[in-house]
Amino acid sequence: MRVALVQLASATDSAANVEDIRSQTAALSPADGLDLVVLPEASMHDFGSADHDLAAVAEPLDGPFVGFLGEEARRLGATLVAGMFERTDDLPFNTLVVVGPDGALRQTYRKIHLYDSFGYKESDRLRAGDIEPVVLDIAGTPVGLMTCYDLRFPEHARALIDAGAEAIVLPAAWVAGDRKLDHWRTLLAARAIENTVYVAAAAQGGDRYTGHSLVVDPWGSIVGEAVSTPEIIRATLEPEVVARAREINPSLANRRIRTSS
């Protein structure tokens, strides 16, 4: 599966963000043969300050942002994953949308673990999704979806693997701070190693966020990594690598403690 991670720095202007994404993805073409393009969490609209009203800027799933993603997916002939704030009659969801190569909305994942940590409280502004792992087939690969803070919960990743995932895609807006980059790299590698899967994480860059979009293979090795500026990371996720890792390191098969279904 050929993947491109698009690292960007969103603003609190949804229309400007669409134009920024359009400008960056112009570097991608159908000739690249991409199967999957991943944008960060909050690609539609940045979180902004703690008093910024996300409910006022949230969009429905049939709104302009998802419509734009559909246009790009059709242009590239690829599946697109991106983060947005989804309108409800109360607090919005922090939602990943998956748009297929035909431009149609295929799947959504509403962030389960809200970032109530490091002095911040995401649950004051957004509502958590149902506790339901989301795995879907993309170009023959079962892909599990997570968002940012979900990374700190290994049971979430394991639930995706138990649902059949052979890769995990994780859009994020990982807030910068002391030791945060170390946490980011370490946790991404840990989720890959302990589950013997690829992990592809598209991150927000700029001054506020850590950046460093990463692709990690099932051995925990970094296949590609950005820094903090806008950048596109490309990688090929090979099922043979997953199969070989699971043959040599059959830790999933050797488990004796399993969560109840």
From TrEMBL:
- Which keywords, in A-to-Z order, does the entry hold? Hydrolase
Asked if the Swiss-Prot or TrEMBL record annotates the protein with the keyword Nucleotide-binding, the reply is no
Q: SUPFAM superfamilies, from UniProt?
A: Carbon-nitrogen hydrolase
Q: Domain CN hydrolase: where?
A: 1-239
Gene Ontology molecular function:
hydrolase activity
According to the record, the signal peptide region is none
CDD domains with a match to the protein in the record: nitrilase_3
Q: Which PROSITE patterns match?
A: CN_HYDROLASE, UPF0012
* Top-level division of the source organism's lineage: Bacteria
Q: What is this protein called?
A: Carbon-nitrogen hydrolase family protein
Q: What is the lineage of its organism?
A: Bacteria, Bacillati, Actinomycetota, Actinomycetes, Propionibacteriales
